[in-house]
Amino acid sequence: MDFAFHVLQYDKARFLTEHLPAIPRHSGVYKIFDLRGKLIVLDKTSNLFERLERFYGERSEMLRDLDLREITSRIEYLRTDSTFETLYLLYRERKHHFPKTYRKMRTFRLFTLMKINLKQRFPRIYASRQIKGGVHYFGPFVTRGQFTRLKTTLERTFKLRPCLYNIRGNDPHPDCMYFQMHTCSRPCNSDIDRGGYLEDLSQAMLFIEGRDAEIESSLVAKMNDLAAEMKFEDAELNRRRLDRVRKAREEYADRFYSLANFNFVVVLAAASTSRRKIAFIRQGRIVAFGEYELASLKEALGSDLHVWFETPAEKHATDAQYDEFCLVSNFIVDPLQSVDLLALSDDLPARVMELIERKRKRQKQN
């Protein structure tokens, strides 16, 4: 789907009578350029007609907006049909025109991510607001306190190390508080090898996503195997770990997304009720927009899902991946800006059609 702006050369004598009436009374993004061709305004609005009429129409002496009538050379605008589309387009244009400062413009809220780097010998948990290749990320965390509570829960439940030492093994730190209290598995003292530590960490990552059933099935299977081998003490250790996981879930109910599995389609409104726009989200990136006729949506969407999710993923700029993950997450954490996000699945085209039909029935009833 091509986001092509409508370009309007500004003529003060003709604008109000000829050009302004053709501008849609709809949400959109607009750009205004001065006589030297420099961008001076880039913003969004819920009504393009009213916004430009305010800038260029008959003005009151009480209106304190900048008078653009004498310095404008052209106006560009693009109608949008949903808040999601508007924010994405505004973000894209701000990043293009202001690549060094676009984040300071607060187009949407940015979130903290939980970072786990498996390239480290004994990985620990970090907070991050950037993305690097080959590292696991989870989020979005609305507040730093929310991140800290989960970090503490993971460290206590799965005995992950919170210390700042560069742990390689066989280098004990008896002056460390966590070492003395046995609150971590003490990899510095070689109490656990890297394989065992990474196994604990993989269970912690499942806990973050709320995949508790997988953790339980793994621990129960280990308990049964150990009991069959008459290793009752080891089986008891796994039972205690299972109890810790269940208790931790009672205390911390929130689940978060893994960036690697952050794959969705977003069903959006279109200019016509017989059409729908769909955004494709792959590993946090907004990789494409498409517009579909409802009559052929199921078949066309099926082939596009193959193109955008089953072909090898392109290597994306990690800054863009973080930005777009946060953009989509805004619609997850804020119920007032809710959109219809559907997770990737085998029956996704059918689920999209069911969602559209339910919404059409509700609209008829209202």
Question: How would you describe what is shown here?
Answer:
The structure is a single chain. By secondary structure, this protein is an alpha+beta fold. It has three domains: 6-98, 3-Layer(aba) Sandwich (GIY-YIG endonuclease); 112-257, no CATH class; 262-365, no CATH class. The chain is 42% helix and 19% strand. It has a four-stranded antiparallel sheet with strand order 1-4-2-3, with helices on one face. Strand 2 (28-34) and strand 3 form a beta hairpin. Helix 4 crosses helix 6. The protein is elongated, with a radius of gyration of 27 Å. The chain starts with 5 loop residues before the first strand and ends with a helix. The mean pLDDT is 91.
Brief write-up:
The chain has helices at 12-19, 48-56, 83-97, 144-158, 177-181, 194-208, 212-228, 232-251, 297-310, 318-333, 348-365; strands at 6-9, 28-34, 39-45, 72-79, 112-116, 125-128, 136-141, 257-258, 264-268, 275-282, 285-293, 340-343.
